Design the sequence.
């Protein structure tokens, strides 16, 4: 089992990272929260969870052990797979997710794509006593208004990779950037996940 990878960040998008470690490029599926933590860095250390199936070997990467622990807890809930857990962690930072679970806030969970009322209730019941306090992961970086087109393209591409329609994603991103033109790409994606 791989605990973590330390190396050079070759590519970084809101849903994937490629990290070069001694000449081997590892493709990692990441959340928007992890993207925010590594955005602008050339190298780093990412915590890993490996899923081995008959048809694929998948690596999921996390900026912290706490985020990985939440991912494992979420995937232990019936009906929550790795991509749904990643969607949840992209929509709510670890500190907000823990607070939502601890306080029984099913409304925050049902706002996330793919999370219905029954799944939200299962998450709350199964994890209420398992979540631990973690420090909030801040570090939102704001990009200049001159990069608006790049922000828009990156956010739409990430939303399409997460399973949303391109036209709906573009409409949501345009609306968000109209109201908050200085938002970073990760903030635009998080806001779009709340309205899509």
Sequence:
């Amino acid at each position: 089992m791989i605990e973590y990878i330390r190396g050079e960040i070759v590519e970084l998008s809101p849903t994937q990272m490629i990290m070069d470690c001694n000449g081997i490029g590892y493709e990692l599926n990441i959340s928007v929260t992890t993207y925010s933590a590594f955005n602008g860095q050339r190298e780093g250390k990412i915590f890993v969870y490996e899923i081995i199936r008959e048809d694929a070997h998948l690596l999921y990467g996390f900026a912290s052990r706490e985020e990985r622990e939440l991912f494992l807890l979420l995937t232990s809930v019936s009906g929550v797979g790795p991509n749904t857990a990643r969607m949840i962690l992209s929509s709510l930072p670890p500190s907000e997710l823990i607070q939502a679970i601890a306080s029984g806030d099913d409304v925050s969970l049902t706002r996330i794509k793919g999370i219905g009322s029954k799944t939200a209730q299962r998450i709350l019941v199964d994890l209420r006593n398992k979540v631990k306090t973690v420090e909030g992961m801040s570090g939102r970086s704001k990009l200049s208004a001159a990069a608006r087109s790049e922000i828009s393209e990156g956010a739409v591409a990430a939303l399409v990779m997460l399973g949303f329609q391109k036209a709906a994603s573009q409409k949501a991103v345009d609306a968000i950037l109209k109201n908050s033109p200085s938002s970073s790409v990760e903030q635009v994606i998080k806001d779009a996940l709340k309205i899509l």
Observations:
- The two ends are 36 Å apart (CA to CA).
- The longest helix spans residues 148-161.
